[in-house]
Fold:
Amino acid sequence: MIELVLAERCTRCGACVDVCPTNVFDAVADAPPVIARQSDCETCFMCELYCPADALFVGADCERLDAISPAEVVEAGWLGQFRRDSGWGEWAGDPRYRNQHWRMDSVFARARRDAAPGSGAAAAE
Structure:
């Protein structure tokens, strides 16, 4: 789930606002966008992937916040990690980073579980 917009890194390009499929962000004139509808976040990582300044942090848990501070995210080296591990931007063409999408594993596992025959989600369809 989207957790942080780091204002000091944000270039105010609006890419996160434009690519979010659930309209989680609100654009603000002359300021970084704000997370306006956090519970609508699908944890798709599109905003983090398209942010050229690595100013966003999306936690891997799609249901609960990680309650992490900007300083902790910076110290852990997580800013831009999804872009890098996906081989985007300055990482394109680097053979060490080939679209690994490692942070989506729990989301995909949950989808597989929910879609399995006999699960409550599959039976509801």
Observations:
- The two ends are 25 Å apart (CA to CA).
- The domain at 2-65+73-124 is CATH 3.30.70.20 (Alpha-Beta Plaits).
- Residues 16 and 47 are 4 Å apart (CA to CA).
